[in-house]
């Protein structure tokens, strides 16, 4: 049984690395071709960033594979032998949280290199070392507290019910929904400073746009995201009456009003189509399958590993194999998500009136330029990793010509209408 699990994880790692290698080779070649949507220098820079980031991903995957072998062969048994308290509940919680903390520490160097070295090298990160450390410490404390409570809840369910995996699934799924509702509040308390959008023409236009789709919210806020990152973004956080519209200050700075409204129109398209609930349902299906599998682990597996059949061991195995199921499910979720993105683009352009598609296209183009996103990817990488359609495909769906920028930086052959925006 252990051999089977190792074989499954090995296949996952091999396929994951293969997809990344194909992406690296494709981007490394294409970044020297005719630039698309970006000036030549930015196109080359974006391609180089993509390649370096994917190399980090490969290194992380290989290290995690080695760590997986360690946990399966020795680590879980070590935890069960040395993490012992008089309370069985405390022992189980400490084992799982200990596993989570050790895993986070192993991933920390990769996260640091990406955010504080690579992102700074390419001009994305604005975060200071002090800010990075503060964010990590806050995240660590919140994660330990939150994980402890959830693990304790699952432990109590596992020792109390025969169909523990079903009740545990319902419990964890409920927690995830609750977290989605509270996310904007937690983010504002511990990470970003959110200030209400000032009264004025922009706020009135946003409120009028939301009224068209029946979107109710608890406020429109501006995030000081530029203190960490100069990328552009916006999100609708929360569920039900807790929904907030949050605009990154970088987005307000770089987009004009009609472009900004087009981006929000796209997000409102997701709301109008109930996409957030579809995504939650898909995630629920994935979790249900995972809980069902690990709720019926043969006793032989514990014997082969030399560990007791205790709740903590089952939970650790669950966490170890979550990336595998996620990788398998991602193509399905990505297919649905990319379809939803096209539909949201359509709604966003319709909300903008006769020229709505042009303003949305202009906003998408600026997002690519400001975020220095390489606009081309290998088809296999898109299949396994993309939740959004490639930007070129989105522009085609909006009936906007794809623009190219010559090496000397001359004007791109966009449609005449878009040039005037």
Q: What's a quick, concise take on this entry?
A:
By secondary structure, the protein is mainly alpha-helical. Strand 3 and strand 4 form a beta hairpin.
Would you mind describing this structure in some detail?
The chain has a four-stranded mixed beta sheet with strand order 1-2-4-3. It has 421 residues and is mainly alpha-helical. The radius of gyration is 23 Å and the shape is globular. Strand 3 and strand 4 form a beta hairpin. The protein has one domain. 71% of the residues lie in helices and 4% in strands. It contains 15 helices and four strands. Helix 2 (40-82) runs antiparallel to helix 3 (88-121) and helix 8 (257-272) crosses helix 12. The model is unreliable at 404-421 (pLDDT under 50).
List keywords for this structure.
single chain; globular; 4 strands; 4-stranded mixed sheet; mainly alpha; 421 residues
Strand fraction: under 5%
Query: What does the radius of gyration come to?
Result: 23 Å
Q: How would you state the average pLDDT, rounded? A: 84
The major beta sheet can be summarized as: 4 strands, mixed
Secondary structure layout:
Blueprint: H1 2-30, H2 40-82, H3 88-121, H4 129-158, H5 164-190, E1 194-196, H6 201-213, E2 220-223, E3 234-237, E4 244-248, H7 249-254, H8 257-272, H9 275-294, H10 299-305, H11 311-351, H12 356-371, H13 379-385, H14 391-397, H15 416-419
Parallel strand pairs: 2-4
Antiparallel strand pairs: 1-2, 3-4
Helix pairs in contact: 1-2, 1-11, 2-3, 2-11, 3-4, 3-11, 4-5, 5-9, 6-8, 8-11, 8-12, 9-11, 11-12
